[in-house]
Write a structure and sequence with these properties.
alpha+beta; Glycoprotein, Type 4 Pilin
Amino acid sequence: SVVGPRLFGRADQGKIAAARAQIENFSLALDNYQLDTGNYPSGQQGLAALLSKPSGSPSPQGWRGPYIKARELPTDPWGSTYQYVSPGKMNKNWYDLFSLGKDGQKGGEGDAADIGNF
């Protein structure tokens, strides 16, 4: 039937849009973290630094979080964790933030493509 593939396509597009919106929310929270502390979280500190003050280096002086309203970090629409790399490989002066998409693998095309801030 023609209806089935169209519905699946719309569901995938909705998930892609939801992932982009969540990445934007994380980006705003990361910008607020950076404004308060002078740095983005390190790759090791990761997105968890948005929920609780990280221990370890760099010590985030001025941390005023939590920076997101959640008890735990949201997962992407496919149930996987968002990937945070700092300093970024694509965005060398700040960070890369992305979902691995529907297939959960790096790279990919179409609905299996990574969705990120690059």
